[in-house]
Amino acid sequence: MSTSESAAEPLTSLSADAPPVAASTVPRAGIGWNSLIGYLFAITGAVLFSTKAIAIKLAYQHPVDAETLLAIRMGLALPIYLALGSIAVLRKRAGGQRLPSARRFLAAAGCGLIGYWFASYTDFIGLLWISATFERLILITYPLFVVIIGWLFFGGRLTWGIVPSLVCAYGGLALIFGAHDGGGGTNVALGAAMVLAAAVAFALYQLLAKREIGRIGSELFTAAAMSGASAGSLVVFFLTHKVSDLAVAREILPHAAFLAIGATIVPSYFLNAALARISAEANGAIGMISPVATILLAALFLGESLSVREIAGTALVVSGVAWFVMSEKKKAAG
Q: Residues 269, 275, 280, CA angle at the centre, nearest 5°?
């Protein structure tokens, strides 16, 4: 997106651009202090993840392109994730646990290229032409693609129950697209297509990452995935730019630093802490506040506003995705 990015921690790992919608936790009876803290952590994480698009749009007010901004973001985040990964390795060694093979680390790095580099790259490009609000609403539809791609390539089941939520969510996006397209033409269509590609890539990442997380654990997977994503970002940058291009205007650096820390690393830990205290169903439902937070922040920092048509479209998108997430949770519980 972290979309891109971004996002999630999807499943049980750290994510750059979206909140988790599928993880295994045991619901606790009643609402005690531990659960209340969990809800607070989940809300904080979802809101922080929603700031990614705002920071990107603010950075784009200065002369910088997607490749450079993404390279700076990943370059700043990489040392932190590598340090956390090293701590996880030392902890496993101290506990006498066997470390995963190089093949497993490479597989995790490959997942990172899909979910943290390609998804983020297309998301960054899309934000050149569409609003932060529109971007967030496209990205949160990725759970629908998880089911569709899972059915097409991973032997998953597809039921007609997905159709109403699909029609509802993408009907809402069509309303918003029509409102935006009136002033943006081809650029709006291209921007929406790029963010949609980010959503599809993030869905594919979830399907691939689930297996690897189970094999090497969340902490090591995250370090390897982020290393792969960072390598992809830096390779693309150095193939298309000069090193001197990293010397961006100083006004951009606070936004890039916030992207790396405030919109990626910090919220991922808040959401992991939430998953330890409340159910995955609660986390998925709370994640629906992300586009609402983006709307409010976009109005505050970017001066974006919504027409009646866009408000109706937003309501349809959020309702469609929430409907789908809740129906999937009920089906899994049954």
A: 135
Phi and psi of 140, rounded to 5°?
-75, -5
Residue range 15-64, pLDDT digits in tens:
444 444 444 444 444 457 877 888 888 889 889 988 999 999 999 999 99
pLDDT tens, residue by residue, 185-233: 578 899 999 999 999 998 898 888 878 888 888 788 888 988 999 999 9
Annotate 282-321 with DSSP letters as a single string.
Answer: HHHHHTTHHHHHHHHHIIIII-----HHHHHHHHHHHHHH
Give the residue with greater pLDDT, 328 vs 158: 158
98 token code pair: 């066997």
Amino acid letter at 261?
A: I
Q: How far apart are CA 13 and CA 321, in angstroms?
A: 21
Cα–Cα dist 331/161, whole Å? 10
7 contacts: CB under 8 Å, gap ≥ 6: 1, 15, 16, 17, 18, 19, 49, 52, 139, 202, 264
Q: Does 110 score more than 90 pLDDT?
A: yes
- Compute the distance between CA of residue 114 and CA of residue 303 in angstroms, rounded to an integer: 32
Give the length of the chain: 334
- Report residue 214: phi and psi, to 5°: -65, -25
Whose structure tokens read 């918003």? Answer: 176
Cα 42 to the chain's mean position, in Å?
14
- Please provide the DSSP assignment of 191-237 as one string: HHHHHHHHHHHHHHHHHHHHHHHHHH-HHHHHHHHHHHHHHHHHHHH
pTM above 0.85, yes or no: no
Q: Report H helices in 52-185.
A: 52-59, 66-94, 102-112, 119-126, 132-139, 142-153, 162-184
